[in-house]
Write a structure and sequence with these properties.
By secondary structure, the protein is mostly helical. The protein has 2 domains: 102 residues, no CATH class; 221 residues, MetI-like fold, CATH 1.10.3720.10. It is 69% helix and 2% strand. Strands 1-2 form a two-stranded antiparallel ribbon. A hairpin with a 5-residue loop joins strand 1 and strand 2. Helix 10 crosses helix 14 and helix 10 crosses helix 16.
């Protein structure tokens, strides 16, 4: 390494500079932004800086000392509504009634001077309740786990212990479970279809193989929105599938195939099937073609030879395809939104709701972190298995 001229090292560095910039701008920076908005909330420190700096010394007995009350009134005296608004929303989400209390106290703070005696309880009796001051103390830190806990339907009680949110107040945990269950079903459906399809494609040659691979690759060359819209038309009550089944006399009335779980699974399985077929196909084509005849020559039936020879050797492709399908499926948004019903929306729809409709970037980032952690763990498991080799059956 020391023998390489500095100019050569500089040229090598310049060659990878575009890649480093691309990864930094489009991968690392968005991830860092997502993590930071999920765990950072400096609305209180920005709106009430004096109070945030000293309220950590409060012992929890209301009302707090005159020094903290004076800092609070001084902050309100100089605060503008644009800065104070996010802090009030944060406090009101912790203790109901904070919005009216802050408005009333801010009006009283207009006449405050450093020499004015402070009597917060005289302004409003609610300031004698420790819960309101505890909410301010908890919000004073610029870092919080509130969003991460809320993403799992958890919160912290007055004692600071983690507890579940009241029933019916949030459904994030249910939606996360629904997302993983739908992704698992789609992964199993892709295995059931993709494994035999890849084996058939690997067993033929020439134009037959090209035709089978083209049928798999063609959906990848079509817009996701177009593919989903096509299924939207096919799965309708008067769509092609129901008309064909009715025409054949197999059903008397249309099957409910859209705006439900069945439509989501059918459409997403079609969209994600190439991610299962291609990894399996690449593994099977690398298996020596004489292994199956050798197993047959030793007395194994075709099914037994498949179970003992071909299937174990194809498991690396099955695992790779399952990983790809599952990771892509848990982040899907368009397909469940178009062909699914209200009870079929996945976590990506909730992230879009928090980001676009309520502008709650903290909750959107917290839910995004959950997806990031799950996919990272899956990748680490796959890496471990692929390094060991034996668990894959290879």
């Amino acid at each position: 390494m020391n023998d390489i001229p500095a100019s050569a090292r500089l040229r090598a560095g310049l060659l990878i500079l575009p890649l480093a910039l691309f990864l930094g701008i489009f991968f690392i920076w968005p991830l860092w932004t997502m993590v930071s908005v999920a765990v950072r909330d400096d609305a209180m420190a920005g709106a009430l800086p004096r109070t945030a700096a000293i309220i950590g010394e409060w012992d929890g007995e209301a009302p707090p000392p005159a020094e903290i009350q004076g800092a609070f009134m001084a902050d309100l005296n100089g605060a503008d509504n644009a800065t104070l608004g996010p802090a009030v929303r944060r406090l009101n989400s912790a203790v109901s009634g904070f919005r009216t209390l802050m408005s009333k106290t801010q009006r009283a703070a207009r006449d405050y001077t450093p020499d004015t005696p402070v009597d917060m309880v005289g302004i409003d009796a609610r300031w004698g309740d420790a819960a309101y001051w505890t909410a301010i103390q908890n919000a004073a830190s610029p870092y919080t786990d509130r969003n991460l806990l809320a993403a799992l339907d958890l919160t912290r009680d007055d004692a600071g212990e983690i507890s579940s949110l009241p029933a019916g107040s949030s459904a994030n945990r249910l939606i996360i479970w629904r997302t993983f269950s739908i992704a698992a079903i789609i992964t199993l459906a892709c295995i059931a279809i993709g494994l035999p399809y890849a084996m058939v494609a690997a067993s033929v040659t020439g134009w037959k193989r090209n035709l089978l691979l083209l049928a798999v690759l063609l959906p990848l060359w079509t817009s996701l929105l177009v593919r989903t819209a096509a299924w939207f038309i096919l799965l309708q009550d008067q769509g092609l599938i129901n008309q064909a089944l009715t025409g054949l006399g197999l059903i008397d009335g249309p099957l409910p195939l859209i705006f439900n779980r069945a439509g989501v699974i059918v459409a997403m399985t079609h969209v994600l099937l190439p991610f299962m077929v291609l990894p399996i196909f690449s593994v099977i084509t690398a298996i020596p073609a004489n292994l199956m005849p050798a197993a047959a020559s030793m007395g194994a039936s075709p099914f037994r030879a498949f179970l003992r020879v071909l299937l174990p050797l194809s498991l690396p492709g099955v695992l790779s395809g399952s990983l790809l399908v599952f990771m892509v499926a848990i982040g899907y948004y368009i397909t469940p939104a178009l062909v699914g019903g209200p009870n079929d929306q996945m976590i990506s729809s909730i992230i879009a709701f928090y980001a676009l409709q309520t502008a709650n970037w903290g909750m959107a980032g917290a839910l995004g972190i959950i997806l990031l952690v799950v996919t990272t763990l899956l990748y680490l498991v796959y890496n471990r298995l692929s390094r060991n080799g034996a668990p894959l059956g290879a």
